[in-house]
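Weekly structure sync, notes
Attendees: PL (lead), two postdocs, one rotation student
Agenda item 3: pending single-chain targets
PL asked that the sequence for the first pending target be pasted directly into the notes so everyone works from the same version. It is reproduced below exactly as submitted, 368 residues in total.
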Amino acid sequence: MPRRRTGRLAAAAVAAAAAVGLLSGCGYGARAGAAAAKPAVEPSGPKLSADTVRIGYFPNITHGTALVGLQNGLFQKELGSTRIKAQFFNAGPAEIEALNAGSIDIGFIGPNSAVNGYAASRGTSLRIVGGAASGGVKLVVDPEKIASPDDLAGKRIATPQLGGTQDVALLHYLAGRGYRVNPVSGAGDVRVLRTKNKVVPQAYGSGSIDGAWVPEPTASQLVALGAKVLLDEKSLWPDGAFATTSIIASQKFLSAHPDVVEAVLRGSLAANAFIAADPARAKADANLRIKADTGKALPPAVLDPAWAGIDFTDDPLAGSLRTGAGHAVAVGLLDEPDLSGIVDLTLLDKVLAAAGRPAAADAGLDAK
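Predicted structure, written out during the meeting:
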């Protein structure tokens, strides 16, 4: 693929998203925090090539791989005496900013935020090195106002952030149904409002939004308030599989410390195996981590359906990454990007092979 203009709209989207966050009182510092939970396993054994690895994630059910891995010490077991410094975020642009600034080395993040960060840096900032989750995203609406997609005209629908994975998905869906929306301002036939996930339930309860295209557990929080699921995003993808959470690493850290990145990937596989073997305990452990980070656990009425809607996977689902980037281009949030090299599955394939499993598909995006 020849290199084309990649940064203009991606950078504009990231900058606009940051501006929206600042205007709503959630600037960079408010959207990130040091993880509060104590390590489940103390560092011990041989130290890898780095003294510390800084891992970013969201205290969110779609980041269950990270939550379970941290809560049960599964990453630390693989890292030996290399210490983990965990930091949580509530928005993809803030995590990308931290990665670019060198504040984190590895991150769990939505794929569109990874694409935006890669495009804005002209392919120099990060690589997607693994997968973590698929699914767990829904369009949830007020049933008294919206009974079908034809009722969306004139309604106010929230997404977590401008240019984020769910924002692009909603804009593409609306365009496919003939609705016209300005991709940056959100004005149009349907009003798209960028609203932090933690604020969405309050906004719905007050009537300031009529629905939201959001990941779990926010979707289930709205259902608990009386909203109805109008669309599960799984229905829009072949076999219902699309990347919700990807694992990224800064190119600088990946080059200098491949052994550390490999260890984190082994921990990720261990976390997903733990989830598959004992989903009830894994769900409870993820909730403990959320409570430690945010001060509040999810109630069973929200946690149970949210967890059930997510498929935890080691596969980065690179094909859906390319498709999602195409959607961002189609709605006007991204110039046609050159994504060659955004994926580097060398270490993931090594870890999979050691586990007797086949290599992951790279959809032609691998850095090799």
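Discussion points:
- The radius of gyration is 19 Å.
- Residues 1-30 have pLDDT under 50 and may be disordered.
Action: rotation student to compare against the earlier draft before next sync.
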